[in-house]
Specification:
single chain; three-stranded antiparallel beta sheet; 4 helices; 28% helix; globular
């Protein structure tokens, strides 16, 4: 039986610093996200910021991943490898996924950014994906089931004609990059693990404009939609508190 890590007050204080660094990295890189930038340049900007502030990029060499962040452009769902030939164009959407390691803890967050003038169908997809994440976060408190979080995400996505990627999920996080529990972004209310104060995990729904089906490219990392339609994602690291929750990856 797997063990869920319950963080102490001291561990939470240290983890908050890692989460803040990850969030501030996204704040920093946002100003550079204009048409013509390559995803490799995005990687290098984030890498330098994390290192400059005393952290280590968690993704670099994690299970062989070759870069410091994940960059997922348009129809890439997740785990896109930054590349000098992947150039963001006007109207594109780009997800930047940053995990920073600091003080012995990991902080994980991502955002989907507009590049230039956003297309209406892309804007709606991005907005609804953010709403899905926040609706799930707003439910978090002791006694709530993990299935409640997945159910509300699925309900909002499907009500807007979108689909939820099922092959990838949120996860516990702390001293390890990926810990128990797994946090599914679909499911049924009243099912799954009951949340307890001191748990820390990510909520990171991947929402597709078209069908939910995905495939992994030959680089063995990059996940794309099978139908070629766009996908968006947002992610925060969440702490379950005695009375509710705290979003650790909001810049303060």
């Amino acid at each position: 039986m797997s063990m869920i890590s319950i963080k102490s007050a001291r561990e939470i204080a240290l983890m908050k610093e890692a989460c803040q660094l990850a969030s501030r990295t996204l704040d920093h890189v946002e100003k550079f996200l204009v048409p013509g930038i390559s995803t490799l340049e995005v990687n290098d900007i984030c890498h330098e910021f994390i290192i400059k502030h005393g952290g280590i990029p968690s993704c670099l060499n994690y299970n062989g991943f070759p870069k410091s962040i994940c960059t997922s452009l348009n129809n890439v769902i997740c785990h896109g490898i930054p590349n000098k030939n992947d150039i963001a164009k006007d109207g594109d959407i780009l997800n930047v996924d940053v995990t920073a390691y600091l003080n012995g803890f990991h902080g994980d967050t991502n955002r989907t950014f507009h590049i230039g003038i956003i297309k209406p169908e892309n804007k709606k997809l991005v907005d609804v994906t953010y709403d899905c994440m926040m609706a799930a976060i707003n439910l978090v408190k002791p006694g709530v089931h993990l299935g409640d979080l997945g159910a509300v995400i699925q309900e909002i996505a499907e009500a807007n004609g979108y689909s939820v990627v099922r092959e990838y999920c949120g996860h516990g996080i702390g001293r390890e990059f990926h810990e128990d529990p797994q946090v599914l972004h679909y499911g049924n209310s009243g099912t799954g693990l009951k949340l307890k104060a001191g748990m820390t995990f990510t909520i990171e729904p991947m929402i597709n404009l078209g069908k939910r089906h995905c495939k992994v490219l030959s680089d063995e990392w990059t996940v794309v939609t099978v139908d070629g339609k766009n996908s968006a994602q947002f992610e925060h690291t969440i702490l379950v508190t005695e009375s509710g929750h705290e979003i650790l990856t909001v810049s303060t």
